[in-house]
Design a protein that fits this description.
Elements: E1 2-8, H1 14-22, E2 26-29, E3 32-36, H2 39-52, E4 58-64
Antiparallel strand pairs: 1-3, 1-4, 2-3
Helix pairs in contact: 1-2
Length: 87
């Protein structure tokens, strides 16, 4: 599965989310992570996110089972991070 995860959390919670998401995905910008996960790893990640999220936090996860169906366009400064989207 190809995953894009974004979060909007209180600043005191940011380090927890970043540390967790870096174990699974690539940090691409501020509160945005992306990468490939197996369905089992995705399930594990969501369970771990549920443990640290508070009522004021928001996490959005976008996923696709077919990475060939995803197109990515970047405008502006290039980010030197691995990208797994197949064009």
């Amino acid at each position: 599965m190809y995953i894009i995860c974004t979060y909007d959390v209180k600043s005191k919670n940011c380090p927890k989310f970043m540390k967790l998401l870096r174990r699974y995905l690539f940090h691409v910008q501020e509160s945005v992570f992306e990468g490939e996960l197996t369905p089992a790893a995705y399930k594990k990640l969501t369970k771990e996110l549920e443990k640290i999220i508070t009522d004021d936090d928001h996490v959005a996860i976008y996923y696709s089972y077919n990475s060939k169906m995803i197109k990515k366009q970047e405008i502006g400064k290039s980010i030197d991070k691995p990208c797994f989207i197949i064009d």
